[in-house]
Amino acid sequence: QQQVKQSPQSLIVQKGGISIINCAYENTAFDYFPWYQQFPGKGPALLIAIRPDVSEKKEGRFTISFNKSAKQFSLHIMDSQPGDSATYFCAARENQVYFGTGTSLTVIP
Amino acid sequence: DAGITQSPRHKVTETGTPVTLRCHQTENHRYMYWYRQDPGHGLRLIHYSYGVKDTDKGEVSDGYSVSRSKTEDFLLTLESATSSQTSVYFCATRRDSGNTIYFGEGSWLTVV
Predict the structure, then answer these.
(1) Taking Cα atoms as reference points, which of B2, B34, B36, B3 lies closest to residue B109?
(2) Contact A42 B105 (CB under 8 A)
(3) Average per-residue pLDDT in chain B?
(4) Residue A54 — pLDDT band, cuts 50, 70, 90?
């Protein structure tokens, strides 16, 4: 059973556009929600993370929006660049970290 | 970069043979993890360790065993490899009291 549901599976965005990836969960005991970025042939690396007592966190062009009542959170990439092309994983932690199924983002020049 | 080295990086093995993947870290992180990555499933936890000789099962532990005899090394063993264990395996670490999980670069395993 997938603890964290992620969509879409793949996403194509024009350079300069906004990329949005969505995740949902059911377990209200999750206390930490990170996003990881993975380039081909590499391991995932932490991109940005949020705790459930905060509704939004922004780091540069990357923003997490968190809706505790809806049990949903999303990653917004503003002014998307070709270098952002990668696979993105949302995750949630309760002791263990559970990952979503990943979104393959392609940014077209 | 948490100084994680995985070996081998690529391996092809036959069904029924035992396989051991090695993870070595240089940052003295307390926690170590083995994940597998498969299309449509994302990253799934196989086993993890919270100290030397202290290990526990993850979501998909059947057919796998682990050992941690030193802080820096965490071994994953497939006792009798099956085609369903063809995957990319990632070792990861986390320091005590930290939130960030650091991943190695992966080991590609093909079971034929």
Answers:
(1) B36
(2) yes
(3) 95
(4) very high
Tell me: the pLDDT tens digits for A15-50?
999 999 999 999 999 999 999 999 999 999 999 999
Query: What's the structural domain count of chain B?
Result: 1
Distance between CA atoms of residues B92 and B89, nearest Å:
10
For residues A60 and A51, is the Cβ–Cβ distance under 8 A? no
Structurally, at CATH architecture level, domain A4-108 sits in: Sandwich (2.60)
Q: What is the pLDDT of residue B97?
A: 85
Return d(Cα B52, Cα A99) in angstroms, integer. Answer: 26
What residues of A are in contact with residue B102 (Cβ under 8 Å)? 45-46
CA distance A17 to A97: 30
Q: For A68-91, write each residue's pLDDT tens digit.
A: 999 999 999 999 999 999 999 999
- B interface mutation test: which of A1, A3, A88, A97 has the most B CBs within 10 A? A97
Domain that includes residue B85, residue range: 4-111
3-state secondary structure B54-103: EEEECCCCCCEEEEEEECCEEEEEECCCCHHHCEEEEEEEECCCCCCCEE
Tokens, residue A34: 């990170």
Is pLDDT at B23 greater than 90 in this prediction? yes
Query: B40 CA to chain A: closest CA distance, Å?
Result: 6
How far is Cα B88 from Cα B93, in angstroms, rounded to an integer? 17
